[in-house]
Prior knowledge:
CATH class of the largest domain in chain B: Alpha Beta
Number of strands of chain B: 9
Oligomer: heterodimer
Largest sheet of chain A: 12 strands, mixed
CATH superfamily of the largest domain in chain B: OmpA-like domain
Largest sheet of chain B: 4 strands, mixed
Helix content of chain B: 25-40%
Number of helices of chain A: 2
Shape of chain A: globular
Order of helices and strands of chain B: HHEEEEEHHEHEHEE
Structural class of chain A: mainly beta
Order of helices and strands of chain A: HEEEEEEEEEHEEE
Shape of chain B: elongated
CATH architecture of the largest domain in chain B: 2-Layer Sandwich
Strand content of chain B: 25-35%
Number of strands of chain A: 12
Largest interface: A-B, 61 and 70 residues
Number of helices of chain B: 6
Strand content of chain A: over 45%
Strand order of the largest sheet of chain B: 6-9-7-8
Helix content of chain A: under 10%
Distance between the termini of chain A: 56 Å
Amino acid sequence: xxxxxxxxxxxxxxxxxxxxxxxxxxxxxxxxxxxxxxxxxxxxxxxxxxxxxxxxxxxxxxxxxxxxxxxxxxxxxxxxxxxxxxxxxxxxxxxxxxxxxxxxxxxxxxxxxxxxxxxxxxxxxxxxxxxxxxxxxxxxxx
Amino acid sequence: xxxxxxxxxxxxxxxxxxxxxxxxxxxxxxxxxxxxxxxxxxxxxxxxxxxxxxxxxxxxxxxxxxxxxxxxxxxxxxxxxxxxxxxxxxxxxxxxxxxxxxxxxxxxxxxxxxxxxxxxxxxxxxxxxxxxxxxxxxxxxxxxxxxxxxxxxxxxxxxxxxxxxxxxxxxxxxxxxxxxxxxxxxxxxxxxxxxxx
Lengths: 142, 197
């Protein structure tokens, strides 16, 4: 590899499918899916989450995911959580995370996005907006 | 404010969809820090700040009522949900041999541990991030740290690492392990971190 210039080396390494993802499912049980472009896709560990996806769990379902800024979350039964916006700069570790919790319950442990900008992570519910700053929270919508 | 919240609770069975109450519980922080959450109404006006571990805020629109539970109650009440949270990412720090793209002997010994950690975590993914010391400009160090990460990445690929689970980054001199003034050589700071999520 020594013979490769920086450009060639980066071309080899950066041409990876993982480059586009924003997070991955780490756990799912009892019926958990992602709604994407109107289709419901059942998820299992390793499933790659994209901006705009809605995590949907059934009456007995739950799921856990880790995002590329180290934000971790889990969703309990009967949840609909949309990742409406997710921007992240790998070099500065700053970005924006906007989730929309329409119903159900989620636990969140904030990651680098919230740590590096106290305004950058928010979860919207039907009547309120929660701005999460370096915290471990449980949020539910009734 | 309390009264409105109670009214909402009273009519909840009748007007479930229209009520849309939400509730936020702030847990004890993972690394001892409490953290905080600002609660806004839908117009974006702040109506409360929740910053005491164990605080449970019941919120609807512009009304919020807060009670407190202890951490044992928090853990018990949300046990199933908290158990579904993925484990904390684990970081491995690798160093290079002098003037070489090969990891040091100690760092090579860590490779087996990295692969074992990946196996332990269903759906694992990796972040491979290069760091420099403070010698040189920020721009040069950003590029150089990315190159350093790429070198470790191609080395790990040669050892059989799944190419679809890797993301690489260069942090330049932003995250010094050893705090130094600018333009200071530091073997501690010249490193690559492999973070297994």
